[in-house]
Amino acid sequence: MKAYIQENKDRFIQELLELLRIPSVSADAAFKGDVLKAADYLRQKLEAAGADNAQLFETAGNPIVYADKIIDPNLPTVLVYGHYDVQPADPYELWDSPPFEPVIKDEKIYARGACDDKGQTYMHVKAFETMMHANTLPCNVRFMIEGEEEVGSVNLATFVKQNKALLKCDVIVISDTGMLANDVPSVTTGLRGLSYHEVEVTGPNRDLHSGLYGGAVANPINVLCKMIASLHDENNHITIPGFYDKVDELSPEERAEMARAPFSLDAYKKALDLSDVHGEAGYSTMERNSIRPTLDVNGIWGGYTGEGAKTVIASKAFAKISMRLVPHQSSEEISELFQKHFESIAPPSVKVVVKPHHGGEPVVTPTTSAGYKAAALAMEDTFGKKPVPVRSGGSIPIVAMFKSELGVDTVLMGFGLDSDAIHSPNEHFGIFNFMKGIETIPLFYQHFTELHGKG
Q: Which residues form the Peptidase M20 dimerisation domain (predicted)?
């Protein structure tokens, strides 16, 4: 298989570049046609690789790409999940090259979706092609690649509930996470949940002249800024009553085990051009971005933001606020707590509306499962060292849903890096990482088939 991968390396990369040229932005209806184009591109490539039943399943939103290869019903089945939609590329002016015109520089592919998640999803397509060519596929495989992950997977749960027989499997594998470093492989064992809201603060019934009305009526932008500032105390502790009531507190031994993972604070600060880090008192940087909940403003706007000056008091101000959650917090409970608190801290001079968006539950996956052991063995085969189990600060809400609906654990075997700038300008994915994924995934199938048989 190694020879086939090496011989076809350039083709694999060129095919990924073709996929990256499709601006499949799910958050913007203007890109709807491109979203559909990306879905069909993957359907075609799965079919060409040797998959059966390659098709698009319609949903109330974007279609789900499905394909399978059932070689023997008595063998275990791997379900591969990925997503073909991408984040908006704005602000375009901060990209060194156009986000949907991929370029290769310093052995990295620069484009929106290069790592999250087109590059990582496409590793699985090419790994499957490699196994089919070599006639070494050791078990059954199903693919489910959606087009709404970046907008909350709003229709995926319905699809899963309605197609449990179609999706029957023994393990789910997702490559939408990362590794600690190219020479420090890791397998993600935990994800944070998410509670996302938009807030609207309204003062006067129209924009007002700031000279005639300034000081006499509440300025919604000023009020919103004060409300947001009050959501953290001097120790960067979130002030919403009840917010921490169900937070899973790790033991000193568990925290010490986490601290063994390689991490350089100086390199971290240098990579982000920071003079110092910031976060909840009493926790390390690695703990703050993985095992602790957070609250962040993702966007804030209101009033006049054009060129020059316009002296107005805006009628409305808006913000988007997200909270990352940890076991055993519930996104529904946290959403209720946030809404109640945010409304309660508003002065009577304004009106507040809190609009919940999407959410998801935190999850910890077992390191004792056949799936985790297979991923660890596969990575050890290709990297030459055992991977480190790590908890990620990111959220993949569908992992908890898969467990509840399909009764199956998920293996989070990602090949990206924290430095890949996902969701940011100049997102990229290393060619090393792309090819290493294609090399490792077939070994995961082999080890899982063997371990499942022993179980």
A: 198-348
